[in-house]
Amino acid sequence: MAEQEPTRRERYRRQTVAEIKAAAMAQLCASGAETVSLNAIARSMAMSAPALYRYFACRDELLADLAVDVHLTLADALEAAAGRKVSAASRVTAVAHAYRDWALARPHAYHLAYETTYGSAREHAADRIATAAQRCMDVFLGVVAEAGEPARALPPALDKQLRGRQGNQHRTPAAVRHFGLIWWSRLHGLISLELGRHLAATGVDAALLYRTEVEAMLDALRPRYGATA
């Protein structure tokens, strides 16, 4: 059965929602989630504030919707890096650096997705945020899984937890999921410290530290997976 064309009212609503989100994303990227204002968005669109609330019931709902878009945009960047026609080890490196490059170019968006409850699927749009965030994690797991599976056994309790969450598209083994989660958490930690300017006081070059960490993780991967650069 052919899908029905949207009505004029539906098209107008979609267009208005897109304009609201574009204005909100501009505010977010300029100065952070704290500055996103429904009243300011309404004024910029020549709308009344009550009219805008017909599209988003509250500011938190709008921020959660932005968090979905942020996760999806990041996933696009990671998938592009993972799709390069290079060796498995080089794809691991490419994804890791694409992750940092994206975060540094969009620090406020990264903060919304990974350092607020709006991006953690705990409040509004929980299902959509979880699905979008999983796309990002699937890329990390995918490039790791391409190189093989670790021989090291996991503790039974952790193995059970990881095997209970086999929703990603790669159907990766629990040991690969464990490696991917540890790898992602270490990279995220360095990026968060860099964005918060906490590394500046150490006198260490953040880019060099990140590159060294990626190489260290890759070195740990090679003996287990037999990956080659």
UniProtKB/TrEMBL annotation:
The keyword Transcription applies. Residues 37-56 bind DNA. Keywords: DNA-binding, Transcription, Transcription regulation. InterPro entries: Homeodomain-like_sf (IPR009057), HTH-type_TetR-like_transc_reg (IPR050109), HTH_TetR (IPR001647), MT1864/Rv1816-like_C (IPR025996), Tet_transcr_reg_TetR-rel_C_sf (IPR036271). PROSITE patterns: HTH_TETR_2. Gene3D superfamilies: Tetracycline Repressor, domain 2. Signal peptide: none annotated. Residues 14-74 form the HTH tetR-type domain. GO terms for molecular function: DNA-binding transcription factor activity; transcription cis-regulatory region binding. This is TetR family transcriptional regulator. It comes from Amycolatopsis vastitatis.
